[in-house]
Amino acid sequence: MPPAPTPEVSHPVGPETATTVGLGALPHGRALGSLSGGQRGRLALAALLMRRPSALLLDEPTNHLDDGAAAFLEEQLRGLPGAVVAASHDRAFLDAVCTDVIDLDPAVDGPVHHGGNYSAHLAEKRAERERWLRRHAEEQQELAALRRSAEVTAHLVAPGRGRPDNEKMGYGHRSGRVQNQISRRVRSATRRLRELERDQVAAPPEALRLRHAPLAQPSAEGTLVSLRRVALALLVARPPALLLLDEPTNHLSPRLCDALESALGTGPGAIVLASHDRWLRRRWAGREIRLSTAESGPGGPDGAPCEHPGHPPRW
């Protein structure tokens, strides 16, 4: 029996859309099986957009897309009349498209929901951290005051403590009542102190910083993603004079990406990085050299490297 024919590219994708998502050079009759995984993903996405569905569920839709294709996708999604639910690590995409953000990064209180785009999500997280810091500081002040009060009051009613002449209220028939009042104050302060110590607000985690810090335990065996995170942690803990990074935000959650970016701004040495992360590149404070081909274009003439001056840091 002859083998079944391989399906060909037959989706109703217009030439303009195909070019925008990076498929313009593919012949229309090329077999689907000969396309790479990234090309098949872009083709499926282009065909989906052409149908303009009433609702969309997207998982990492900007994977394998260059800047122009990602911008085209964002424009198309903003113009759709129906609902769009997308799971994505692409912060630039989340900022351009989202009207609500649900942060699924593991947290004590579970998923966090904020209205607005990714920038609004970050602003709300900063405000929440400020409230957390204030709440922690206020509670620490109350704890310190209660400890001092309990110590002083307990000292006043300590057994065998002599009474100087100026403490006249301790003498005579009222002494028992005064002692009882003081004892109640001690018990009340001690009870409140125990409640606060049991349920006290923990200090928020420190921000990631480039600094020397010995690692006491060797890293355990883990996945490639885990090992990548450990490698980045080592670089943050022991910053070299020159740091070369290739796609440093790959396989990191948005929260860790934000922390890494903040840490990079505290290092003592020079940093050279190659990245497709649009959010990272927009916030990059140094010089930028775009490496591209004439076909994918934002480089220089004939795809030559194109250098752009740096801009003021945004992290």
Automatic annotation (TrEMBL):
Residues 122-149 form a coiled coil. Residues 291-315 are annotated as: Disordered. The keyword Repeat applies. Residues 30-63 form the ABC transporter domain. InterPro entries: ABC_transporter-like_ATP-bd, ABCF, P-loop_NTPase. Pfam families: ABC_tran. GO terms for molecular function: ATP binding; ATP hydrolysis activity. It comes from the Bacteria. Signal peptide: none annotated. Keywords: Coiled coil, Repeat. This is ABC transporter. The lineage of its organism: Bacteria, Bacillati, Actinomycetota, Actinomycetes, Kitasatosporales.
